[in-house]
Amino acid sequence: MSSETRIYWYPMGTGNLETVTIPGFVTSLEDDDPEVVAATSETVAGGMTRQLYGDWRRVVIVRQHLRPSIAAEALAIRGLRSLQSHLLAGYSVGVSVGDRATFGAFTVAGVPRGATAIGIPGNAYAAWAPLATLQAGDEIVLQSASPFGAREVHTLSSVASIGTGSALALGLSRATYYDHTGSIFVRRRTFYPHLKLPEDQLDTPIVTTSSRGRTFDFRLELREDMPEAWSVGESGEGLTGATGQPRTQYRNLQRVI
Fold first, then answer.
1. Same CATH fold, 104-189 and 1-98+190-257?
2. Of 126, 168, 203, 211, which is most buried, counting CB atoms within 10 Å of its CB?
3. Looking at the DSSP assignment, which residues form a beta bridge with residue 66?
4. What is the pLDDT of residue 236?
């Protein structure tokens, strides 16, 4: 796996941007577990039809043996412990696994099946990582909105600047599989900018002690909040952590007591 994982968050949805940096390689990263909302009907003759309303992914990140005797890892342990209150309250975080991974953009128009090139504006998350960019060989995800959208993974064959701004022309190593109508979300495959703690994880600690307190293990299981992502893309809302503005108004997973 790639080295160094960063978690971006605005405490309780306001304030300045905070970052938890987990040094070294993650132990494991899983992001292919779907959650699906659908209605399926079957006929007596064995036919089947399905109405898909939406699908989201869970992201599970594990890093074992964080050592409090190492300054950078001790800082990460404290940051992760502080992060849990934010997650329990239903607010989102962004997670970036690997160097240069903090990159995502929303296209102005859709992309048809069979396309081998895509034009995108600049990085919508540049406030988190101003130097992050794309280059040939990177894996990217193309994602259009539910319920009629789809998700596909590609490798970039080329990346070129468009004009003098931050827009990019992306060449794909193979043609797109699906017709994507409307704006699509283009991101590095290991960048997940809108994640929240699902209800079945509320009672699960994200940091646990191992080796009799000499090391700590970190495990975080989160779920995509794509309505939040599309809100950023459609409204052009800035990620204004530097000015203390709240990043999101979505709290649909907030636990009510």
1. yes
2. 168
3. 216
4. 52
Give every residue of the chain whose pLDDT is below 70, as ranges.
Answer: 1-2, 33-34, 36, 38, 50-54, 211, 234-257
Nearest 10 degrees: Cα torsion 228, 35, 187, 136: 180
Q: Quick one: how far is CA 143 from the chain centroid?
A: 12
| Location of structure tokens 């992914």 | 57
User: In the chain, where are the structural domains located?
Assistant: 1-98+190-257, 104-189
Coil, helix or strand at residue 195: strand
Kindly state the tokens that stand for 18: 């905070």
Question: Looking at residue 177, what DSSP letter applies?
Answer: S
Tell me the two tokens of residue 233: 């893309």
- Domain at 104-189: CATH code: 2.40.30
Residue type, 40: T
Residue 67, Cβ neighbours under 10 Å: how many?
A: 16
pLDDT at 245: 38
Q: Please, what is the average pLDDT of the chain? A: 84
d(CA 125, CA 188): 12
Token pair 């779907």 is at which residue? Answer: 34
Fold of 1-98+190-257: Elongation Factor Tu (Ef-tu); domain 3 (2.40.30)
Amino acid at site 134: L
Look at residue 17 and give its three-state secondary structure.
coil
Assess whether the previous peptide bond of 68 is cis (omega < 30° from 0).
no
Cα–Cα distance measured from residue 36 to residue 170, given in angstroms and rounded to the nearest whole number: 30
Q: Which residue has the tokens 């081998």?
A: 116
pTM over 0.85, yes/no:
no
Q: Tens digits of per-residue pLDDT, 4-52?
A: 899 999 988 877 889 999 988 888 888 876 676 767 888 888 888 866 6
